[in-house]
Write a structure and sequence with these properties.
Blueprint (H helix, E strand, L loop, with lengths): L1 H17 L10 E8 L2 E3 L2 E5 L3 E11 L6 E10 L2 E6 L6 E4 L6 E13 L5 E12 L14 E4 L3 E4 L4
Parallel strand pairs: 3-9
Antiparallel strand pairs: 1-4, 1-10, 2-3, 4-7, 5-6, 5-8, 8-9, 9-11
Length: 161
Amino acid sequence: MKRIFYLLLMLPLLGFMASCDDDKDLPQVTLSVDYTGGSEVDGVIQVTQGDTLNITALRAVPVEGTKAATLGVVEYFFDGIPQGRTAISPYPISINTTDLELGKHYLGVNATVLQVDKEVGFAVAQFTINVVANENPDQPGEGGDQGGTINPETRITDNAN
């Protein structure tokens, strides 16, 4: 009799587990990065050695046909090394290039993404920064007054790692 009683108690739990859905309804966004201190050349931000690259704003841009989205905590990584973490919009960060080697470097972004009618997601993006010498004044990317917006390829996951 006790077995039947325990079985009856377990039926609602088993029904609940059977109705669980493994499909995640993740946010559908891309990241947009506003910056100063460099210029975009073929999808790469070019910065003169000694200048400071400033990320002035980071935004979640909803895919067409989806609802509004915003970012939560944002983490920056330069060549894989943590550079900062902030939850304060517009999520700025500055990278001083004085002591960086000439050549390509990578700025990574991990951000919590919140979108209306979606589960919490995590955006992961990386873009290339090319540090150049200040030998040629006509070279693109010279001068700290330049800037723009870049939209790195963005991957959305359901975990922060």
